[in-house]
From TrEMBL:
Taxonomy of the source species: Bacteria, Bacillati, Actinomycetota, Actinomycetes, Kitasatosporales
Pfam family, one: YjgF_endoribonc
Domain Endoribonuclease L-PSP/chorismate mutase-like: 17-150
Protein name: RidA family protein
Sections of the chain in a coiled coil: none
Origin species: Streptomyces xiangluensis
InterPro entries referenced in this protein's UniProt entry, alphabetically: Endoribo_LPSP/chorism_mut-like (IPR013813), RutC-like_sf (IPR035959)
Superkingdom, natural source: Bacteria
């Protein structure tokens, strides 16, 4: 059984905690071929999110070769923020989002081995903003390459509370 999380970011609501972190949810651009989310029953599947900000990809390259660990962690946090934006599109309010599972893809060298450290940054953001509703099952995977040569892509399954 997991231990309750200490609330490290002050605020009564997820929106207040997001603001306390100096963050705001981005507006996600749509595409012809996919939707940001698909709801099946009470489960919401979010499309993989890249670390885009204002239409610009924040980083390119392979972690362990072109991209340092701390940069990859920052990119993972931003991709997680984009996941939150997609989740809010699906459920209507940040306080209704509960993360169920997160899959973090890290484009990395074969000997990198710290994919979980990259993923931890995204997990931390979700927990900082959502509290216990941000706690989730997770998988972090190293891959040879990702779309647009991004170092990180995050896919999430969530539900509304």
């Amino acid at each position: 059984m997991s231990q309750p999380l200490p609330q490290t970011v002050k605020g009564d609501s997820a929106s207040e905690r997001l603001q306390a972190l100096g963050l705001k949810l981005p507006v996600l651009a749509g595409t012809t071929y996919l939707v940001p989310h698909r709801t099946v029953g009470s489960t919401v599947h979010l499309s993989g999110q890249l670390p885009f900000k204002d239409g610009e990809l924040l980083g390119r390259g392979v972690v362990g070769r072109d991209v340092e660990l701390e940069t990859a962690r920052s990119l993972a946090r931003h991709a997680a923020l984009n996941c939150l934006a997609a989740a809010v599109q699906a459920v209507g309010d940040l306080d209704r989002v509960r993360i169920v599972q997160m899959l973090v893809f890290v484009a990395s060298t074969p000997d990198f081995g710290e994919q979980s450290q990259v993923a931890n940054a995204a997990s931390e953001l979700l927990i900082e903003v959502l509290g216990e509703n941000g706690r989730h099952a997770r998988t972090a995977i190293g891959v040879a390459g990702l779309p647009l040569n991004t170092p990180v892509e995050i896919q999430v399954i969530c539900t509304a509370v």
